[in-house]
């Protein structure tokens, strides 16, 4: 069996490697080639191009590399159409992969897309392209399966790899000790995002929120996870200017450890909210973007929530403060509400545990089974 596969960025490389490993466990002589990162290469995938060639974000950056990306896609199409594989799998990177999948499907190659684009949230017009481009969508969330079924697109819910890797129970005290955080204080975790633009929007609001909470309640300690040297510098400078006496520990990276160690979290919207859910940590969600970006995106959004806990629950189980609502005062009220109402946090932990069990399906194995069943059905 020969499978074409394309993944971009580190997250796609991780997913692709898990899928390759799971398929090889059932079909040891399966061969893989395409665009691969180091983890996929280590699993035996032949890289026609390295995955970092697709790791580009932002309209300006994509426009600047348009001709290079178009050339890579054309070369891949020629390679696979000249020597058709049994299957082609696009891992995430929808702007690149869906176009390639559509062309390959039109010449008779079976196609799978792993990780649904957020068509259910915005840019729903892409649904028609997906329907034309893929023979099977592998979805990470159960509501995505319902969505695609309703629109007549073949789909399989395979679960989320994070739900497989994060244990069902994580010790708060052990996590706190590992980070050398005080064991006798209430710890508030701050996760203001991983990008420089996010820190410039959120750092001051997060610091001022922490200052308000610290004045209202004794015995607090704060810990902030920062992804890069640049984001660390932005937050540290803001802290020095706004609340230099705040009892806080700043860490480079280690965001998941910070979540596990905390009693309550203040989290920027995104994947971090899913990690916080899987760690069963109560949270307040806050996010801001440039005013023009917010104005444009708000008009295209089709869902009422931004955070994964609310999307997965279908209701507002955690408080979200977006754009102008993300004031220090609002964020502090949200944090204090969680600290002062243990019955509320207990209810959140129960809800999060139920979602964790739903998403914990051994995603790589489920995805491999779906892929191999599709190949078998096409060979009959």
Structure description:
- The protein is elongated, with a radius of gyration of 22 Å.
- By secondary structure, it is an alpha/beta fold.
- A 7-stranded parallel beta sheet has the order 3-2-1-4-5-6-7, sandwiched between helices. Strands 10-9-8-11-12-13 form a 6-stranded parallel beta sheet, with helices on both faces.
- The chain folds into 2 domains: 2-159 and 361-379, Glycogen Phosphorylase B (Rossmann fold, 3-Layer(aba) Sandwich); 172-359, Rossmann fold (3-Layer(aba) Sandwich), CATH 3.40.50.2000.
- It has 18 helices and 13 strands.
- Helix content is 53%, strand content 17%.
Provide keyphrases for this structure.
2 domains; six-stranded parallel beta sheet; Rossmann fold; seven-stranded parallel beta sheet; alpha/beta; 380 residues; elongated
Helix and strand topology:
Layout (H helix, E strand, L loop, with lengths): L1 E6 L1 H18 L4 E6 L1 H5 L2 E6 L8 H6 L1 H17 L4 E5 L2 H13 L4 E4 L11 H8 L2 E4 L2 H9 L4 E3 L3 H5 L6 H7 L7 E6 L4 H21 L3 E7 L2 H14 L5 E5 L2 H7 L2 E5 L2 H8 L4 E5 L3 H10 L7 H6 L5 E4 L5 H13 L1 H18 L3 H17 L1
Parallel strand pairs: 1-2, 1-4, 2-3, 4-5, 5-6, 6-7, 8-9, 8-11, 9-10, 11-12, 12-13
What is the CA-based Rg, rounded?
A: 22 Å
Which consecutive residue ranges, at least 5 long each, have pLDDT under 50? Answer: 56-62
Q: What is the CATH topology descriptor of the largest domain?
A: Rossmann fold
Strand order of the largest sheet: 3-2-1-4-5-6-7
Shape call? elongated
- The CATH architecture of the largest domain would be 3-Layer(aba) Sandwich
> Number of helical runs?
18
The number of E-state strands comes to 13
Give the termini separation: 15 Å
CATH homologous superfamily of the largest domain? Glycogen Phosphorylase B
The CATH class name of the largest domain reads Alpha Beta
């Amino acid at each position: 069996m020969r499978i074409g596969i394309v993944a971009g960025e580190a997250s796609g490389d991780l997913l692709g490697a898990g899928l390759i490993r799971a398929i090889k466990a059932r079909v040891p002589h399966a061969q893989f080639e395409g665009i691969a990162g180091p983890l996929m290469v280590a699993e035996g995938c032949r890289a026609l191009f390295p995955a970092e060639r697709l790791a580009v974000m932002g309209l300006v950056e994509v426009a600047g590399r348009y001709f290079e990306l178009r050339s890579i896609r054309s070369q891949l199409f020629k390679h696979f159409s000249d020597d058709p594989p049994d299957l082609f799998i696009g891992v995430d990177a929808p702007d690149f992969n869906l176009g390639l999948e559509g062309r390959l499907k039109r010449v008779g190659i079976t196609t799978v897309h792993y990780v649904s684009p957020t068509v259910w949230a915005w840019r729903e017009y892409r649904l028609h392209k997906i329907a034309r481009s893929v023979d099977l969508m592998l979805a990470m969330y159960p509501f995505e399966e319902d969505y695609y079924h309703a629109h007549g697109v073949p789909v399989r819910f395979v679960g989320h790899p994070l739900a497989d890797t994060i244990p069902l129970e994580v010790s708060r005290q052990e996590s706190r000790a590992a980070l050398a955080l005080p064991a006798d204080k209430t710890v508030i975790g701050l996760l203001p995002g991983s990008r420089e633009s996010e820190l410039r929007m959120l750092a001051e609001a997060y610091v001022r929120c922490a200052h308000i909470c610290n004045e209202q309640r004794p015995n607090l300690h704060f810990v902030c996870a920062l992804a890069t040297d640049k984001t660390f510098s932005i937050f540290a400078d803001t802290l020095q200017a706004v609340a230099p006496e705040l009892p806080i520990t700043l860490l480079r990276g280690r965001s998941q450890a910070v979540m596990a160690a905390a009693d309550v979290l203040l989290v920027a919207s995104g994947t971090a909210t899913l990690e916080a859910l899987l760690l069963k940590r109560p949270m307040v969600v806050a996010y801001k973007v440039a005013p023009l970006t917010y104005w444009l995106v708000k008009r295209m959004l089709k869902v009422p929530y931004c955070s994964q806990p609310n999307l997965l629950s279908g209701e507002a189980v955690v408080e979200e403060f977006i754009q102008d609502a993300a004031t220090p005062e609002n964020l502090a009220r949200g944090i204090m509400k969680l600290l002062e109402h243990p019955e509320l946090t207990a209810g959140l932990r129960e809800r999060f545990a139920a979602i964790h069990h739903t998403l914990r399906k051994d995603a790589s194995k489920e995805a491999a089974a779906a892929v191999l069943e599709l190949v078998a059905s096409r060979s009959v």
